[in-house]
Amino acid sequence: MTALDIIIVTFNSEKWIENCLKSIENVRFPLKNIYITFIDNNSIDKTRQIIQSYPNRHFFGGFQTFFLKSNRGFGYSNNFAVQRTNQQYIFFLNVDTELEPDSLSILIETAERSKADGFALWECRQFPYEHPKNYNPVTLEVSWASGAACMVDREAFLKVGMFDERIFLYAEDVDLSWRLRGHGYKLMYVPKSIVYHYSYEKAGVIKKHQFYNSTYNNLMLRYKYGTLRDIFIGYLLFCCLFFVKVPFKKNVWMIFKNLIRSFYQGLKFRKLNRNFGKLGFKPTFYIWDYEINRDGAYYVNELPSERPLVSILIRTCGRPLVLYETLLSVRNQTYPNIEVVIVEDGPDVSRNMIEREFSDLKICYYATGEKKGRCFAGNKAMELANGKYLNFLDDDDVLYADHVEVLCSQLERNTDKKVAYSYAFETPIRVHSRNPYKYELLYHNVQHRQPFNRELLFNHNYLPIQTVMFSKDLFNEHGGFDINLEVLEDWDLWLRYAQKYDFLHVEKVTSAYRIPADSNDFHARQLMFDKYLTVVRGKYKQYNAVEASTLRSSSVIINRLRGMTARAILFKVKRKLVSRLRKWLSSR
Fold first, then answer.
1. DSSP 8-state symbol, 289
2. DSSP code of 84?
């Protein structure tokens, strides 16, 4: 079996070491194939004594320790260790972590399977707070990987020059990720490989070293990889730090020191290893981040104690190549107890693809033969479903890997609720070819984030269909889609269920749905929605009249709505200003 080196850097880490090692001892992976290397950066607590007196080092294939005479930083320490190890895979692991028992076996298995496709780095999923950066829910490819728990191929790591030792702490993993991508390698997120990372004692805490080093190194990466415009924007952002209130003393003085240091250090970063034009991709800077973030950075992830069957319901209509990607996102789900109910409206065009490519999934497939319509197909899917919970997924939309896990866990913990929903990205898509299926995703900057409000729901639908998971009891008690509706059938269903139950909203983006980027397609789609908007509202006009009266008499709700309107206006103004600023800078 494949062996790996685990490299752990320590600095005054006495409270973490024993639990970290204990978790490695308990993995379901041959311990003799694990080689552990500790690098200590001159700790002044009991870190050295704890490592030296560790009694179970004989469990592993190798156990070595190195104690540096000064703190040389994360990148230098890891490079030092790599040069003194020799396994094919190198697992960089923060000391304030604990491994799930299956984390290493899943990581190795994934690497062995995907290496031939060009992947050279595999990132674990962190609990209790998952890293919020966006990733591709179909391929699991990620633009950069966190160095807190990731495994790299040794050959690729050495080829790109290892970590940049000029970056003392924070952003060295971004730099490594970009250089790997620049050499043609790909990075994979492995959400089923879970590592508990105790980086924050509580949600949202601001850490001193992270604040100063991450902002400074963001500017250094702009020098190293960015355009002159990126550097200019970096200095504008850096100057804004003078007005940021943080719970640290000498904040202004530290920012000023970093600002002065950035001028001469930035030129060194710009001159040395300058390879922006050779990367083959464009590095992205999103203010202080390097990727679009999904809402839910401080959502507390937990593995569900109970795992009832969940049915994913997919309606499709003669486009197996589109359906293929959607099913890949279902295959990537971290929740293990899923059935997929696929109802094809018309002939069984997708049957062969499903049987050939997805025999590993538990799939119930049904084709209507003749065209019956979206609502008939949806009702048939609900009838065929065996799950305790149901979740619709359109055949061109995708789920992030934790979607089912998150919503099912919330429903199981909140037994008084029958419906739960999460947040979603809205993604314009430009299709270049149907066969083969080739497309371009334009951006992910619209996130639906609306707490449950029955009055607003009766005014407009703020629940994309794939975001909602509901108990099958609701279908049995209150029925399914209205077959007279061609669109907005999901809104009609939510309105019917909302008359009886409050919905539980989960503050995390767990899915993405696609809309046409072409203005003609979008316009035709909108005309259809406008037509049935009147129809659906007409079905609930009595309820709407009551709610309208309530709205007029309730100052609390009125103020809430006014606040939402104001935020919406400010958001649009902000987007226009940013857009104009980008256009102006790009023309310079």
1. B
2. T
Tokens representing 342 are 């696929």
CB neighbours of 294 closer than 8 A, spacing ≥ 6?
A: 132, 133, 134, 400, 423, 425, 447, 508, 509
Token pair recorded at residue 287: 């203010």
Please tell me whether residues 143 and 49 are part of one structural domain.
Answer: yes
And the tokens for 585? 């800078």
Looking at the fold, whether 375 and 267 belong to one and the same domain comes out as no
- Looking at the fold, whether 251 and 314 belong to one and the same domain comes out as no
Share of the chain above pLDDT 90, in %: 69
Q: How far apart are CA 62 and CA 218, in angstroms?
A: 37
How many domains is the chain built from?
3
CA distance 277 to 283: 11
Amino acid at 225: Y
Q: Which residues pair with 454 in a beta bridge?
A: none
For residue 110 the two structure tokens come to: 């994934």
Q: What is the DSSP pairing of strand 34-40 with strand 62-67?
A: parallel
Q: Is the pLDDT of residue 12 over 80?
A: yes
pLDDT digits (tens, 9 = 90+) for 411-454: 999 999 999 999 999 988 888 888 888 888 877 666 678 899 99
CB within 8 Å of 527: residues ≥ 6 apart: none
Residue numbers of the domain that contains 404 = 310-519
Report DSSP letters for 235-255, one per residue. Answer: HHHHHHGGG---S-TTHHHHH
Q: State how far the Cα of 225 lies from the Cα of 243, in Å rounded to an integer.
A: 27
Main-chain dihedrals φ then ψ at residue 425, nearest 5 degrees: -85, 140
Phi, psi values for residue 232, rounded to 5°? -60, -45
